[in-house]
C-alpha cells in the first residue's frame, strides 16, 4: 500500500494519526481537506509532502480554469508547513506546467510520484554502500529518530529506506529508533514499519539516545531531513541535533538521507531556516489527557538544525557528499539514480 496516491480523480493517503492501531485511508477531493491533513500530520515526511503538494495542485487545477485562482490556492497549500522545503518544491514544480491545462499538471504530479519511488530505492543502495565502507563489523546496529520510512514517502523512505536495504541484504543486526516526542512518530510509525519488515529493533526514549551512543550501542546514526541548506546544515525532527552532538563525541558516523529535492541552495545556512512551532497542546497533554498543571505553556519546535560540521555524510538519490572530508553540495557531481 502506498502512503499517498492518486486514485480516480482524488488523493488517497494513509492517515498516520491512526497508526499503529488501525490503517485508515483518507480520500481527499478538495484543497481545504488536504491542508488540514498536512497540518495535523495525517500526511508527513519530506518526500510525501512533496508528492502531496504536487497532487494538491493537480486537484486544484482540475476544479478551476481561473489561473489566478489556481495560483492563489497553490500558495495556500505551499504555506501549509513552512520548514519542509519539499512541499513548496512539489507545488512550484507542477505550477510550471499550468499553461498545459489540468492534464499536464496531473502528469507532472504523477511523474514526481514515480520519481520519488525510484529515488528511495536509490538512496537505500547508496546509503547501504556507505555504511558498509564506514562500519568495520560484519553486521550493523543503527540508531534513528522520527519516521523516515515508506510512511514519509510514497514507498520505502529515506533513512529508514537505507535500514530496510541493509536488512534485505542480510547484515542488519538491530535498529534503535527513538520514540520522538511529543507525537511519538518513532514509537507509533517507525516501530510499526520495522515490525512490518521483520527487522529486529528495540525502542528508546529520546533522552536515552545520546547516552547510549556514548556507550557504543550503535555503529551509525541515520536521520532524514526536511530542508538541507546550501552549506549542508540540516533541519530535521527535534532531537536530531542532540544525537549529532553525541555521535560526534562517540566517534559514530552521523548520516543524513534525503532526496535531491530536499536540498535548498537558496537557503544559505541553517540560520535562515524557519522553524515551525506547533504550540503548547502537543506537549502539555497526551492522547487528549492533560499531563501538566492548568495554564502551563510550552515551547514546541517541531524541528532543529544540525550544523554541517557535525554531519559525516549526506546521502541523496544521486550522490554521497562526505561533509566530514570537506566535500560540499556544490562540489560533488550528480551520479545516476541506482536501481540495483
Question: Can you give a write-up of this model?
Answer:
This protein has 340 residues and is of the alpha/beta class. The chain has two domains: 4-115, Four Helix Bundle (Hemerythrin (Met), subunit A) (Up-down Bundle); 123-325, Rossmann fold. Helix content is 38%, strand content 16%. A six-stranded mixed sheet has the order 5-4-6-9-14-15. Strands 10-7-8-13 form a four-stranded mixed sheet, covered by helices on one side. Helix 2 (46-62) packs antiparallel against helix 3, helix 4 runs antiparallel to helix 5 (102-134) and helix 8 packs parallel to helix 9. The protein is globular. The mean pLDDT is 97.
Which short descriptors sum up this protein?
15 strands; alpha/beta; Four Helix Bundle (Hemerythrin (Met), subunit A); Rossmann fold; six-stranded mixed beta sheet; 10 helices; four-stranded mixed beta sheet; 340 residues; globular
Helix tally equals 10
- Helix-strand string: EEEHHHHHEHEHHEEEHEEHEEEEE
Low-confidence stretches: none
Number of extended strands: 15
CATH architecture of the largest domain: 3-Layer(aba) Sandwich
Computed CA radius of gyration, to the nearest angstrom = 19 Å
Topology:
Elements: E1 4-7, E2 10-14, E3 25-28, H1 31-39, H2 46-62, H3 67-78, H4 85-95, H5 102-134, E4 140-144, H6 159-169, E5 172-177, H7 185-197, H8 208-214, E6 220-223, E7 227-229, E8 234-237, H9 240-250, E9 254-257, E10 263-264, H10 281-284, E11 285-286, E12 289-290, E13 303-306, E14 313-315, E15 320-321
Parallel strand pairs: 4-5, 4-6, 6-9, 7-10, 9-14
Antiparallel strand pairs: 1-2, 2-3, 7-8, 8-13, 11-12, 14-15
Helix pairs in contact: 2-3, 2-4, 2-5, 3-4, 4-5, 5-6, 8-9
Amino acid at each position: 500500500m502506498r502512503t499517498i496516491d492518486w486514485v480516480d480523480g482524488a488523493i488517497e493517503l494513509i492517515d498516520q494519526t491512526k497508526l499503529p492501531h488501525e490503517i485508515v485511508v483518507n480520500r481527499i477531493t478538495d484543497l481545504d481537506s488536504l491542508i488540514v491533513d498536512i497540518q495535523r500530520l495525517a500526511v508527513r515526511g519530506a518526500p510525501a509532502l512533496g508528492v502531496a503538494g504536487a497532487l494538491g495542485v493537480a486537484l486544484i487545477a482540475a476544479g478551476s480554469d481561473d489561473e489566478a485562482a489556481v495560483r492563489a490556492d497553490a500558495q495556500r497549500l505551499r504555506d501549509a508547513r513552512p520548514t519542509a522545503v519539499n512541499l513548496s518544491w512539489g507545488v512550484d514544480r507542477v505550477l510550471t506546467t499550468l499553461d498545459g491545462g489540468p492534464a499536464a499538471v496531473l502528469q507532472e504530479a504523477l511523474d514526481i510520484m514515480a520519481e520519488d519511488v525510484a529515488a528511495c530505492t536509490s538512496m537505500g543502495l547508496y546509503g547501504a554502500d556507505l555504511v558498509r565502507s564506514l562500519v568495520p563489523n560484519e553486521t550493523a546496529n543503527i540508531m534513528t529518530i522520527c519516521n523516515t520510512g515508506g510512511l514519509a514517502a510514497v514507498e520505502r523512505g529515506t533513512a529508514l529506506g537505507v535500514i530496510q536495504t541493509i536488512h534485505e541484504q542480510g547484515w542488519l543486526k538491530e535498529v534503535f529508533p527513538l520514540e520522538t516526542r511529543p507525537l511519538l512518530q518513532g514509537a507509533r510509525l517507525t516501530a510499526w514499519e520495522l515490525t512490518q519488515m521483520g527487522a529486529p529493533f528495540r525502542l528508546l526514549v529520546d533522552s536515552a539516545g545520546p547516552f547510549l551512543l556514548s556507550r557504543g550501542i550503535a555503529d551509525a546514526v541515520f536521520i532524514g531531513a526536511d530542508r538541507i541548506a546550501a552549506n549542508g546544515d540540516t533541519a530535521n525532527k527535534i532531537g536530531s541535533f542532540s544525537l549529532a552532538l553525541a555521535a560526534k563525541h562517540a566517534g559514530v558516523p552521523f548520516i543524513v538521507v534525503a532526496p535531491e529535492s530536499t536540498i535548498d541552495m537558496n537557503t544559505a545556512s541553517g540560520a535562515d531556516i524557519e522553524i515551525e512551532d506547533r504550540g503548547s497542546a502537543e506537549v502539555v497533554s497526551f492522547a487528549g489527557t492533560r499531563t501538566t498543571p492548568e495554564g502551563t505553556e510550552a515551547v514546541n519546535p517541531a524541528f532543529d538544525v544540525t550544523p554541517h560540521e557535525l554531519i559525516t555524510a549526506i546521502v541523496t538519490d544521486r550522490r554521497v557528499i562526505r561533509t566530514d572530508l570537506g566535500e560540499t553540495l556544490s562540489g560533488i557531481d550528480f551520479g545516476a539514480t541506482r536501481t540495483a
